[in-house]
Design brief:
With 357 residues, the chain is of the alpha/beta class. The protein has two domains: 238 residues, Type I PLP-dependent aspartate aminotransferase-like (Major domain) (Aspartate Aminotransferase, domain 2, 3-Layer(aba) Sandwich); 101 residues, Aspartate Aminotransferase, domain 1, CATH 3.90.1150. It contains nine helices and 14 strands. The strands form four sheets. A seven-stranded mixed sheet has the order 2-10-9-8-5-3-4, sandwiched between helices. Strands 11-12-14 form a three-stranded antiparallel sheet, covered by helices on one side. Helix 1 runs antiparallel to helix 6. The chain is globular.
């Protein structure tokens, strides 16, 4: 079978060895002659998976003491509601930095529960930059940011220094680079970018901040309930958690977050160098804020679109069509995408320029 270079924005590429092990577990897990997806989540075999996944998160991100690791359901979209339910006090207020579609949705969910301050936004330029030099209100219950923006191709290069609790949606760049978890009071991230298949969401929760809102939280949305239940208050999504565990082990075995950060930088440098130097393309994101995960770019001459599309498809490239809110193209370069795939796309862009430039 010919090589497909998978630039899908998510669900996205996963390591081949992870997919192989996961497929074997679906048939026969741990030599039980039972499938992973048909054994009890309370069995010692799956409890070991959950504990290993949680342990790998702590190890790879150097999570300090006082934080709990949860693998829950509902995606980051449900997290948008869990955040204000668990952290916005009755009669309190929250601060949000609005950097794109997902940040806007998080803000909208919080508005259902209380006062929300949009302290900064890049909507004025179609979210093509990360706001700077904004004031963080000292009396807000928390500050919420979205660290990477898959649609518009921007990324926080510097985490805000905040006197109030800091909460981050890291769905599309967690495990892609080193972070200081101690700067955050809660991190949440859908698995389907750098960690596993869609179906589970990682929560890294500072325990001491919970239980202070003065509101009654529905049981399934109460993070304290899930911490007490060790991510098993209800039946967890066993397969996505298992694949996430395999992916985190793959990351550890190859050198951890520091190792992948270097590779991700190489991929981004290669991609953006071609975008900037190729006379037929231009990037859409502010250069200082460009995402290492999602490179967004357009053709300078839209009349050449059909010709370019033919060339990249013929080269076995998949998933680079841009989001409808931006148009053009988007190369998503998550952890498992090899450097050779970025080179394949760059080679097509170079050949395209020779032919039509």
């Amino acid at each position: 079978m010919s090589k497909v270079h998978n630039f899908s924005a998510g669900p996205c590429i996963l390591p081949q060895e992870v997919l192989q092990k996961a497929s074997e577990a679906v048939i026969n897990f741990n030599n039980l002659n039972l499938s992973l997806i048909e054994i009890s989540h309370r069995s010692k075999d799956f409890i070991a998976v959950m504990e290993k996944a949680q342990s790998l998160v702590k190890e790879l991100l150097n999570v300090p003491d006082g934080y709990s690791i949860l693998f829950l359901q509902g995606g980051a979209s449900l997290g948008f509601l869990k955040v204000p339910l668990n952290y916005l006090k009755v009669d309190g207020k929250a601060a949000y930095v609005n950097t794109g579609v997902w940040a806007s949705k998080a803000l909208k969910e919080a508005q259902q529960l209380g006062e929300v301050l949009e302290i900064a936004s890049s909507k004025d330029k179609n979210f093509n930059y990360i706001p700077k030099n904004y004031q963080i209100p000292g009396d807000a219950d928390y500050l919420h940011i979205t660290t990477n923006n898959t649609i518009f191709g921007t990324q926080f290069k510097n985490i805000p220094i905040s006197r109030i609790p800091l909460i981050a949606d890291m769905s599309s760049d967690i495990f892609s680079k080193k972070i200081d978890v101690s700067k955050f009071d809660m991190i949440y991230a859908g698995a389907q970018k750098n960690m596993g298949p869609a179906g589970t969401t990682l929560y890294i929760v500072k325990d001491s901040l919970l239980g202070k809102t003065g509101r009654k939280i529905p049981t399934m949305l109460d993070l304290a309930v899930h911490i007490k239940g060790e991510s098993m208050f209800n039946t967890p999504p066993v397969f996505p958690i298992y694949v996430s565990m395999l992916t985190l082990q793959w990351l550890k075995d190859n050198g951890g977050v520091e190792w992948i950060e270097g590779i991700n930088q190489q991929k981004a440098d290669l991609m953006y160098s071609e975008i900037d130097n190729n006379p037929l393309f231009e990037g859409t994101a502010n250069k200082a804020d460009r995402s290492n995960m999602n490179a967004t770019f357009v053709l300078k001459n839209e009349n050449l679109k059909d010709e370019f599309d033919k060339m990249w498809k013929a080269a076995g490239i998949s998933g680079i069509v841009g989001h409808r809110d931006v148009g053009g193209y988007r190369a998503s370069m998550y952890n498992a995408l090899p450097l050779e795939s970025v080179q394949a796309l760059v080679d097509v862009m170079k050949a395209f320029a020779v032919k039509f430039g």
